[in-house]
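One example copied in:
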Amino acid sequence: MKSAFFAVNKPRGISSAMVTNKVKWLYRQTGQKVKVGNMGTLDVDASGVLVIALEKATRMFQYYSVMPKTYETIIKFGVETDTLDSTGTVLKTSEKIPSIKELNECLSSFIGAQMQLPPKYSAKKINGERAYNIMRNNLDVDFELKPKEIKIYDIKLIEQVDEESFKFEIICSTGTYIRSIARDIAKYNTTYGITTSIIRTKSSIFTLEHALNFETLNIDDINKNLCSLNEVVLFDVIKLSKEDNRKLLNGIKLETDFKTGFYYIMVEDELTMLVESANNKLNIVLNLEEKING
């Protein structure tokens, strides 16, 4: 089984873990035990592009995570819930609904690197327990989440949906909570806000239009839509002979004049490893093949 990526259109109402579990189950039906992970969890109440990693692609998250993700979200103003979305219990209300002009004028303030406070209903771990489990099960645990640095590359107002709701497009870094953006835009405009819809429309090269349907997901469609590591996580390629490739695998650091950074090693049109060039030597970061023949 080769290391690769593909995308599923995760429906609203199911967890990201349910998607990865279905992929594992599908492969088990063919007699294969395949390592499966995702490249960025979606909230249960959110839908859209969930990128699935197979085998050693699951270990590429730290390199994949620098790639922006695009969302469409509807924010309803004048109300705040404990979950910061429409599934929660209403905590606060306000008659203040910002105008299109007020929203457009404030959006530039949200672009760039910033510290964002995650929602208490989130997957953040508190002493080994998910924050949302603590909240949902009324566990006797007092906690405060710490702000985390995120980056918003672009945010724009698409349209007004109704008297209280507006649709936005947001391009942001991994780890950004769209529900927190709704809260913060509302606070900027001296009111409250929640998300009523969150759709991830793009993640790396994967778009909603090309994501596989969760309900009809099958092995044949997965195998037809697999993308190799170097299609998704972009690094330059260094071509090596089998002999030099074997030297690297045996712990011999090859001399190089490549600039500092990460590279894929390719032998006879096959990716064999991810390496780092540092101090004029190549060092293995991730071996993509258990054995090189020849």
